[in-house]
Amino acid sequence: MTSDDDGLAQRELVRRGYDELAETYAAEREGNENDALLDRLRSDAPPGRVLDAGCGDGTSALSPLAGERPVAGLDFSREQATRANEVAPGRVVQGDMTALPFADGTFAAVGAFYSIIHVPAGETPTVYEEFARVLSPGGVALVTTGTEGWAGRNDDWLAGGAPMEWDILGLDRSTGLLEAAGFTVYETVGVVDGLGQDGKTSRLVAADSDEAEKLFIFARLES
Ligand SMILES: C[S@@+](CC[C@H](N)C(=O)[O-])C[C@H]1O[C@@H](n2cnc3c(N)ncnc32)[C@H](O)[C@@H]1O
C-alpha cells in the first residue's frame, strides 16, 4: 500500500467510526471544557462567520456559537453531520477538511476542536492551507493537537465496538505547518482530556503544565 492508500484507509476508518460511535461519543463528550476557549475565540476573531470544522454533533461549539454569529458546521461523518444539522438547521454540510466546500475569505474564524488529530499527517498541510483560504485576513484558527506527537489506533474505542485512529503532530510540527500556511501562532492552552476516563472531567490548564495532555493552538492569519 502507498502512503496515499494508508491516508485514505485511515480517513475511511475515522469517518465510519464516528458514524458508528455517535451515541457513545456524545455520552462521553458531555460536560466539556469549550466555554473558555469559545469566549477567547469570540473576543479574538473579527466580526463575521465562524466555521466549526469537524463539528461532530455540534454540541461543543456550533450550538453555542449559532445564536450569536453566522455559523457553518462541517463533518465528514454522515451521522455526526445529521446530528449537527439538528442544532444548526441548514448550516451544516457533510464534507472533508482537506477540501472545504466554501468560497475564499468567507470566515472570520475556524474552530477545529479535537478533529485535526484524526487527519493523516500527510494531509494536515492541506487542511491548514484550506483554513487559510477560507479565512479573511486577520481571521483566527483554533485547533487541537497533542503536547507531543503520537500516531496510533484503538480497536475498541470508548468500548463502543468500533476502531479509531489518530495522527497527532504535536506543537512544534503543528506550529510549523500553520506558519507555512500563513498563520502566526499567538497562544497555546493545555487541556487535561477526560474523554472516556471514568470520573475524569476535561479541564483547561497552562500549556506548559505537566498535566497538559493536549493543546489548543490559537493562530491568526496574517493580514
Ligand atoms: C473527536 S470528534 C470532535 C467533535 C467536536 N468537534 C467536539 O469537540 O466534540 C472529531 C470529529 O472530526 C471529524 N473529522 C475527522 N476528520 C475529518 C475530516 N478530514 N473532515 C471532516 N471531519 C473530520 C469526525 O467525523 C468527528 O466528528
Automatic annotation (TrEMBL):
GO terms for molecular function: methyltransferase activity. Coiled coil: none annotated. One of its GO terms (biological process) is methylation. Pfam families: Methyltransf_25. InterPro entries: Methyltransf_25 (IPR041698), SAM-dependent_MTases_sf (IPR029063). Residues 50-139 form the Methyltransferase domain. Transmembrane segments: none annotated. Gene3D superfamilies: Vaccinia Virus protein VP39. SUPFAM superfamilies: S-adenosyl-L-methionine-dependent methyltransferases. Keywords: Methyltransferase, Transferase. This is Methyltransferase domain-containing protein. The lineage of its organism: Archaea, Methanobacteriati, Methanobacteriota, Stenosarchaea group, Halobacteria.
